[in-house]
Amino acid sequence: MSEGDDKKRGMIPGAQFFLDRLWIWATGIFFSMIGIVGLSIFTPIGTNLVKIWSAPATLSAVQMDLTKLRTEINAVTGDNRVIRQTPGLSYVTEPVHVGEPVVLNLVAERTQLGANCVLMSAQSLFTESGGVITPGSPVIPARQIGEEQTRMRILITPPDNLQPGRVELYLALEYECEGRRVMDKTDTVVYSLMPAK
User: Fold this and answer.
1) pLDDT tens profile 154-173
2) Residue 94 scores a pLDDT above 70
3) Cα 75 to Cα 14, 35, 71, distances in angstroms
4) For the residues of 53-76, what is the DSSP string, one character each?
5) Which of 19, 23, 55, 168 lies most in the core, judged by the most C-beta atoms within 10 Å?
6) pLDDT of 5 above 70
7) Among 125, 194, 197, which Cα is nearest to 164's?
8) What is the pLDDT averaged over residues 96-105?
């Protein structure tokens, strides 16, 4: 063999060279992994990585809590209903004696949910001290409740079998809301039914 062939053979790395390089890379990767694990365990980086990893689940839980809170707030404020009554402003004109019509003074306003709803019918419902609910006369809507507080005087014929004493009255309301039938009710008003004159 010539001297040139020896030089060529020396330029082409042998199998041992590749094995040495493989061990160097493997050792580097091993120590890098130990360093990453050490950083994630012993520094705030690990805590931050866990927070980032669990962020979608946390965000989903927060969204569910917000939805539940929004639903509860709407229930408390009355925004989940078609109409909302101002507490304490609706009442029955008293005295009311057995056999006389009842005048319900109703103060209500339309909610954002009920903005496109039309009142189709209303049914008066009376509850005596015994807890029995008895329907009175139906109420034919003469006008719609607006977005501002609306005062209405509604004349209702109570059922004949009401006994003197404490009586609760509310109206079951039926609305047409963009092609859907929606039921709602007024707040309960309490009055004292006196014996017949």
Assistant:
1) 999 999 989 999 999 999 99
2) yes
3) 80, 54, 6
4) HHHHHHHHHHHHHHHHHHHHHHHH
5) 168
6) no
7) 194
8) 95
Residue 17 tokens read as 């060279």
pLDDT at 71: 73
Amino acid at 50: V
Burial 137-165 (b: 16+ CB within 10 A, else e): eebebeeebeeeeeeeebebebeeebeee
Given the structure tokens 């209303």, which residue do they identify?
A: 122
According to DSSP, the β-strands at 102-110 and 83-85 are: antiparallel
- Matching residue, tokens 């059922």: 159
